[in-house]
Write a structure and sequence with these properties.
- By secondary structure, this protein is an all-alpha fold.
- The chain has helices at 9-30, 60-100, 112-115.
- The longest helix is centred in the middle third of the chain and has 41 residues, at 60-100.
- The radius of gyration is 21 Å and the shape is elongated.
- The two termini are 36 Å apart.
- The model is unreliable at 123-130 (pLDDT under 50).
Length: 130
Amino acid sequence: MPKRIDIDEDFILSLQSRLRQINDEVPGAQLGNDPSNSGAGPSGGAIKDLTVQTGPTTFPIGNTFSNFIKTNVGAIDTRLVNHHTMLTEFVADITDMLDNTDHIESLNSISIADIQPYFSDGAPGSGSNR
C-alpha cells in the first residue's frame, strides 16, 4: 500500500515558495542568466537570439546543427514564456486557495474534484470560481 501523503499548510506554503522561486528565475534564464549563479551576468545573451559557430559552411554536420539551433530557439523561448505564465497563475491559484480555505488540513479528506475549482485551466485569470 502506498504511503499516505498528508497535506498541511506548511507543505502548501513550501510548495508555493518553491514555485515562486522557479517562476522568478525564468525571465533571467530567457536573458541568458544562469539561475544557479545569481552573481553572474548574462552568459551570452537572450535565448531567442542564440547562434552557434560550428565551423565553415562546408562542414555539413556543423551546418545541420547550426540550422537546428536557429530553427528551435524561438520555440524554446516561447516555452519559457508559457512556463512563466503557468507558474504565475499556479502560484496565484495556491494563494487564492489559502485565502479561501480556513483549515488546509481538511483538504486531506476531500477529492481532487472538490479542489479543482481553486485551480485554473492554465488560462490567466481562470482560477477560483468563488
